[in-house]
Amino acid sequence: MARMKFLCDADRCIECNACVTACKNEHEVPWGINRRRVVTLNDGKPGERSVSMACMHCTDAPCASVCPVNCFYTTADAVVLHSKDLCIGCGYCFYACPFGAPQYPRVGNFGSRGKMDKCTYCAGGPEPDLSTIEYEKYGSNRLAEGKLPLCAEMCSTKALLAGDGEMIAQIYKERVIKRGYGSGAWGWKTAYRETVAI
Amino acid sequence: MRRGRTLIRTFVAAAMLAGVAGAGAGPALAQTAPPTTAPTTAPNPTAESVNEDLLFKQAPTIGGRISIPDQKAANLIQPQGREWRGFHETWMPWIGAAAILGMVVLLALFYFTRGRIRLEHSEESGRKILRFNGFERFTHWMTATCFIILALSGLNYIFGKRLLMPVIGPDAFATLSQWAKYAHVYLAWPFMLGIIFMFVVWLKDNIPNRIDVAWIKAGGGIIGDKHPHAERFNAGQKVVFWMVAGFGAAMSVTGLVMLFPFAATDINGMQVMQGIHSLIGVAFIAAILAHIYIGSLGMEGAYDAMGSGKVDLAWARVHHDLWVEKEQARTASGPQLRAHQAPAE
Amino acid sequence: MKAFAVAVICAVAIGIAASYVLSTSQRYAWQAFSTSSARVSHPGTNLVGPRWTGDVKGPHDEVAGETTAPKRS
Amino acid sequence: MLIKRKSGEASRTKHQAIAAGLASGVLDRRSFLRKSGLAAGGLAAAGTIQLGAVRRAQAAGSAVSGDAVTIKKNICTHCSVGCTVTAEVVNGVWVGQEPSYASPINRGTHCAKGAAIRELVHGERRLKYPMKLVGGQWTRISWDQAIDEIGDKVTAIREKAGSDSVYWLGSAKFTNEASYLFRKLGAFWGTNSVDHQARICHSTTVAGVANTWGYGAQTNSYNDIRNAKTMIIMGGNPAEAHPISMQHVLSGKEINRANMIVIDPRFTRTAAHATEYVRIRSGTDIPVIWGMLWHIFQNGWEDKEFIRQRVYAMDDVRKEVAKWTPDEVERVTGVPGEQLKRVAEIFAKEKPSTLIWCMGATQHTVGTANVRAFCILCLATGNVGKPGTGANIFRGHTNVQGATDLGLDVTTLPLYYGLVEGAWKHWARVWDVEYEWLQSRFDEIPAKGGRKARTRKENMEAPGITSTRWFDAVNLPDDQIDQRSPIKAMMVFGHGGNTVTRLPDAIKGMNKLELLVVADPHPTTFAALDARQDNTYLLPICTTLECDGSRTASNRSIQWGETIVKPAFESKTDYEVMYRLATKLGFGDRMFKGIAVENGLPVAEDILREINRGGWSTGYCGQSPERLKAHMKNQHKFDLVTLRAPKDDPEVGGDYYGLPWPCWGKPEIRHPGSHILYNTNLHVKDGGGCFRARFGVERNGQTLLAEDSFSKGSDLTDGYPEFTMGVFKKLGWDKDLTAEEMAVITKIGGNNIDAVSWATDLSGGIQRVCLDHGVVPYGNGKARANAWNLPDPVPVHREPIYTPRPDLVAKYPTRPDDRQFRMPNIGFSVQKAAVDREVAKNFPIILTSGRLVEYEGGGEETRSNPWLAELQQEMFVEINTKDAADRGIKDGQWVWVSGPEDGTQAKVKALVTDRVGKGVAFMPFHFSGWYQGKDMRQYYPAGTDPVVLGESVNTITTYGFDPVTGMQEPKATLCQIRAA
Questions:
Q1: Which of B52, B85, B270 faces A184 most closely, judged by CB atoms?
Q2: Domain extents for chain A?
Q3: Are C52 and A135 in contact (CB < 8 Å)?
Q4: Mean pLDDT over the full length of chain C
Q5: Of B155, B322, C67, D205, which is least surrounded by CB within 10 A?
Q6: Which of D482, D568, D473 is CA-nearest to residue D521?
Q7: Contact criterion met (CB below 8 Å) for B138 and C6
Q8: What number is the ipTM of this complex?
């Protein structure tokens, strides 16, 4: 069974935000909800690197474990999804998430923040595959169509890799060996407790 | 030429840059050009690349610049999320259970050994003295009812999914938790109000003094049968007062910081606040359990103080003799009480 | 007993008042994350539901956003 | 923990094999359908005024049944890389976008704009119906009323002030067919004032490079950069302007461990990936190039054999370069001597090397000279005409290359024929109209301002007014303008208005116009910033995703886009609007004689056939609609690096992807197109070529033809002039012409048959015969290091008009005042006044402007797309940390940026960063809608104001125009910044 992961090759990411708008386009994500975003580190100075970040679908996901209503579930290929019916919008998953992935429709105060929304690895949620209700709640379900997340498929320089963990690690390793440099698999130690040995 | 390097560039660059980056102002850009507006140049941006280990040496979280207004999103990796999860999912349940169950066991032990403290009859039994007026009782009960709901809904965050969900099923439990969250957030306000009122109303009677020291030395009359003097509030009750004030304030502050996310601090600050809120919460609950016990089951006649507000004069004489004298002196002109009856507790 | 009853009523009243005050001071994500240079008329309602509460099941009546034009997600 | 097995396990195994990183190539139709919602956007609004906001149709419902999803392919309408957009359409509504894995250019990828392009066709900020300004209020009118009123008013202005008083401002976002039609419309109307965005983009490149080796276009391609061992990116930021090109640049850098050198005043996101970053002062490109050449000539690293064979007058350059010793270069540009030596050595030795440039090189008063210096550096090191080398000019808009080719240029008719009589006669033949009738459409110009009068013929052959100075032609006194009357009416098609410098003067011009017509999917700056009260019309034009048509990408490949959805709301295609306008103006039937028009809609394919019939000079004759459509259907057959399809393929055998021009001869000859220009290692029939012999045969005793260098398999093994019937007769090749070809040639030649050239022979016979003999129709000449017909034959450094170094103006002044494009160019006096007024002291910060990846061009379209607008919500200025500290400016606060000319200022956010050097500031140029601190949102027609508005940088940019093309100078001016 595949173990789905994200890997952003920061030495190729040019912060063009294609991943962000591809996600917005594919799932009609509203203004203010940013399932994916690009952060530029060491901005403006030599050594600057940009990383595209959304939910990393962690191993033993912190969000899933702290959720007071246990509304998270991990699919067979390790995609961490959640149910918006059970979610009470308490925000604990945002405390626990090392990558700031959870988004809330209302951000004024803790009172009624609305149900959490996050990157679903284009795998929808606990509704019938490819149904309207699934689309309105969780967005489209590309994995059920045998495809991969649109953010990775449309990344302008093929920096954002998505797919089976070993396969994308292999791709990244080959690239680093061929080009002689690599700033490493960002976030992998925190998300998957292992990284790509380069 | 330069491209002949065999070593994987990352580690070399990391070591080299660590030295340079320490200067903080980015790599030392040599100002070799004449002092015109001539800009500086930079060696090899590819080799200078930052990486995770290097950035984690500089700061506990990795963050950068982002072009959208949501500045929280500029925080790329905060590993403290996992640490907070460790605390909240492994430590907290045990601490909570230990505190609360521990207190219940303690009280049960006390009850089955010491038993209920009986009302000692004397000639003054049967007559009443006003201990708490309407407002005091109103404040007490507002705070108390809110506290109970807050406690239950608070514990639900940790123990609900462990204890309740398997029983009533996820959907019902989710709806219940939703309401518990609303209750917790919205009843916190009357609770805070109540805390303030109680503090204002009873502060003057809760200043610790020598009488309390004596009271404590005497074990508060629970051990053996001596009845040390006590004013309106004995040392135990003063402890409860200050505990409620202190913990109440702490819960309010941490609660408010969480209620208005990112207004006061960033995510790591809020994690700390949540930790404090939980720890103090369970301690608060444990303490209040004891207060509830002593105020109801633990001592006969104590409940009336808050129930109707009028306690048995004998009871008052035993437990709060100095207070009774003062009261009677203050209302000596008043006909309703016979003078100088020894209070019975 | 009267004081207890009054206390409970007061608590609930203050609670409801607090919920009202908090919900009015509540801000949609699209308001919080748009600047003075932007006029967002239709922020979209997919994934967050018609009234931006996150639950999609609710009635499809009023749409968050400036005008009450029919739903455009 | 709830672990829930997902249904549809079976399909899961397939994708395990696919990782986004590998080109999966699987483009299976979505096996599910999204629920189709309300009727299609356009249709919903067709009749009813009530908009009925388009509810995004989602195809869902059970996976079993549902409406059919059709796949449509078109080309992204934003930048010139030419990414294929794969659209899923259900019931006429565009419901989704899929990666276009098959396209060899973008291989499934997109940038932010491409990935959000679906929103353009149902964006609710689109201009929805024709509007007219009446008493300062926008009122809705019907199309018929709009066309009638505009036609009448324009005709009235023509009677009163002549045809030159109406300015036709075209667009780089036209399809090829629309660009060609617009130039034809201008010609039939009778004016040469027909321009478009190339003027402020690569006009100096086209002039400079064409005057060096024949054609002014990218010599290689994005895909070919994968062969480069060294690449210098100078004055360009592809990471923001051409993101998908970075896929090829970075892959090439990784596969070949190539040197990637970025030379730019700003540490851009491209520089972040460089292996060497050189920070220079804005406006000092020539000293940097000469500095590099100084080291190259000093150490003899130049390619002597290449220079001897294929370059003329390199010695003149050696004389100029000798002046630029390393310390003088350092004094002027600020670049340390030894770094420039290292860069020069790498570029000259670690070949193949390519030089990539963009606006940073072109947008200067020395733009043409800059570009020629870049070409000379490539020539000196032999880095032209081979895989991995060449001048990789990254053009800007989606079809700026095609629109430039097809004549939206005040100096030429379509396909670079120029404005000489022979050119008009050629097109008169192709258009099948009498040359005399065309001549009668032009004004006679009376003698005025001390200049003698000009006949219709002379005016017909004189360049028009550039888009950088249309408002000067409105504001300046009549006698200074070299035409019958100042400009009275502006016909603006697809043009932003806020991307030209000196916006305050432009606004003055807008207010004085008698008629302003804006035809665009959005109202643009023209509708909002001026204070006009009436005689202003807005015509909704659909985007090129809503019509058929071809576009030429920066690498000269032509790609066909099919209609994805019908034009949204009441918008119409460019073709229909031009057809109805031409009919209203009385020359509709004459103009569309050779073009099929089906129920009021000109057929795009037929327009392209007419272009093929006339496109001999630039090899636009072989790209028939059928061949282009075959390429779009077989995209996956084209190789990633050579762009070539396998020879044995029945449909596209041997073709290069998109038949990059020149594609010689008639479509039937099936010339494959020329992937790499001037590549002598290939036979002409395989896309080989040499430098164009267009500057004559001999000068000052030296031959201008190549010396023992020729394209592979050429019958002539030395330099040869361009081919005419006269040359054919000398060589005896005229016998190879068929009877019909001879008939056409004799008809064309009339009494002077020898003059009929490869470019004017409509039969294509001369080209066919040339190909058979393995020779290049345009001759085999030498590239010119000395362009004697240009103002500075050998490029000379000249300080920008507003220079931070007054001390250098004495030694390196700008060119003396002169008259260009019918108006005075007083750059010299403005520079002198700036030095006298000590502008550099009170405006100490160099201001340069440039691109943002989320927006494009004037930004109206992309700032109306919420998915993009959300990412850049505020106009900003990048200011160096030390400069900010000196002025007490914190990151993210409001600041006033003031410009040196008449106290203009802009209120923007401060972005404190080290990206810009000390004393340098950067501002993007995509914003508009605020003007000197005032929010002008309410002046847009209701509901059509872009989501994000901001100050335009061109509110504070200044005077300064390139002598050859009238290019503006927004890349190097001065400003002062203070906290707001």
A1: B52
A2: 4-192
A3: no
A4: 80
A5: C67
A6: D568
A7: yes
A8: 0.88
All domains in chain D, ordered by first residue: 70-120 (2.20.25.90), 131-201+400-615 (3.40.50.740), 219-393 (3.40.228.10), 693-794 (no CATH), 806-979 (2.40.40.20)
- Summarize the confidence of residues D49-72 as an average pLDDT: 48
Cβ distance of D948 and C33 shorter than 8 Å: no
Measured between CA atoms, how close is C13 to chain D, in angstroms?
Answer: 38
**Strand ranges for A56-190 from DSSP E:** 72-74, 80-82, 160-164
Beta-sheet strands, E only, within D781-875? 783-784, 818-820, 823-825, 845-850
Select the residue of C33, C48, C57 nearest A117 (Cβ to Cβ).
Answer: C48
Q: Could you tell me if B2 lies within 8 Å of chain A, comparing CB atoms?
A: no
CA distance D397 to chain B (A): 24
Residue type, D246: M
Kindly list the distances between the CA atom of residue D676 and the CA atoms of A67, D102, D312, D644, in Å, as whole numbers in the listed order.
Answer: 59, 22, 21, 11
Interface of B with A in 236-265 (CB under 8 A): 258-261
Strands (E) across A62-122 are located at 72-74, 80-82
pLDDT single digits (tens) D691-740: 999 999 999 999 999 999 999 999 999 999 999 999 999 999 999 999 99
Least confident of C54-68, D354-368, D598-612, D835-849: C54-68
* pLDDT band at residue D824 under the 50/70/90 scheme: very high
Phi, psi (rounded to 5 degrees) for D195: -135, 175
Mean pLDDT of D163-186: 97
Q: What is the structure's pLDDT at D10?
A: 30
Contact indicator for D352, D346 with CB cutoff of 8 Å = no
- Largest interatomic CA distance in chain C: 58
Taking each helix axis from N to C end, the angle separating B267-295 and B235-259, rounded to the nearest 10 degrees, works out to 150
DSSP structural state of residue A30 = P
Closest-CA residue of A relative to C50 is A136
Among A68, A70, A180, the residue with its CB nearest the CB of B5 is A180
Query: Tens of pLDDT along D96-105?
Result: 999 999 999 9
Q: Which residues of B touch D328 (CB under 8 A)?
A: none
Amino acid identity, residue B75? N
Helices (H), D810-875: 827-836, 839-842, 866-869
Q: Report whether pLDDT(B345) > 50.
A: no
Q: What is the gyration radius of the CA atoms in chain B, in angstroms?
A: 31
- Comparing CB atoms, the residue among C6, C14, C35 nearest residue B190 is C14
Contact assignment for B34 to D330 by CB distance below 8 Å? yes
CB contact under 8 A, C19 and A111: yes
Residues of B in contact with A35 (CB under 8 A): none
Q: Which domains does chain B have, with CATH numbers?
A: 78-112+126-330 (1.20.950.20)
Distance from CA of D475 to the nearest CA of B (A): 36
Residue position matching structure tokens 């606060």: D893
User: Which backbone phi and psi does D14 adopt, to 5 degrees?
Assistant: -60, -40
Would you call A51 helix, strand, or coil by DSSP?
Answer: strand
Give the span between the Cα atoms of B305 and B317, in whole angstroms. 13
pLDDT in tens, D942-976: 999 999 999 999 999 999 999 999 999 999 999 99
Q: Residue A30 burial (CB < 10 Å; 0-12/13-18/19+)?
A: buried
Domain A4-192 has CATH 3.90.650.10: no
Over residues D261-314, the pLDDT tens digits come to: 999 999 999 999 999 999 999 999 999 999 999 999 999 999 999 999 999 999
CA distance D270 to D277: 10
Residue D256 CA to residue D250 CA, distance in Å, equals 10
State the smallest CA–CA distance between residue C62 and chain A in angstroms. Answer: 16
